[in-house]
Amino acid sequence: MRKFVFGIALSTFIISCNFDTQFAKGKSLYIQKCQSCHMDDGSGLGSYISSLQNKNMDFYLQICTISKGKGNKNLVMPGFKLTDVEYANLINFLNEKFGNNKVYLPAGFKNMNTLCKGS
Ligand code: HEC
Fold this sequence. Notes:
CATH architecture: Orthogonal Bundle
Number of helices: 4
Shape: elongated
Number of strands: 2
Order of helices and strands: HHHEEH
Number of domains: 1
Bound molecules: heme C
Mean pLDDT: 86
């Protein structure tokens, strides 16, 4: 029984550490590639740049927006070609830290750059 409890405590610890590492990597990607437009807290800039807070976007839309970019008459967001791991880290960071749905891309989500081709 003690071993069992210890096992649960240990795996909870490992899982939360993994997420902490993912969020940290996602955050540094966000700082490098997104923060200059969307601000450090994701609040954006009024009608010029969308807020990323409380969005609850689904994964498909998030991946497509990031990989293809998006524009309005004032400003264009470029598309970013990231690796699968980078998409996962970035999206999980956004969903955790900006008041979003706290739904995380499962590990092993593959070929995200090809999801939106032709659409
Ligand atoms: C050059 C400035 C710029 C950069 C850099 C940028 N964005 Fe954007 N982003 C925009 C603009 C402008 C829009 C709004 C387009 C519109 O009005 O439809 C937008 C829209 C979005 C949306 C859609 C929001 C919605 O409500 O539909 C998401 C998600 C998003 N950006 C995420 C990101 C992420 C993640 C990064 C970094 C990888 C990033 N953006 C980098 C300017 C930028």
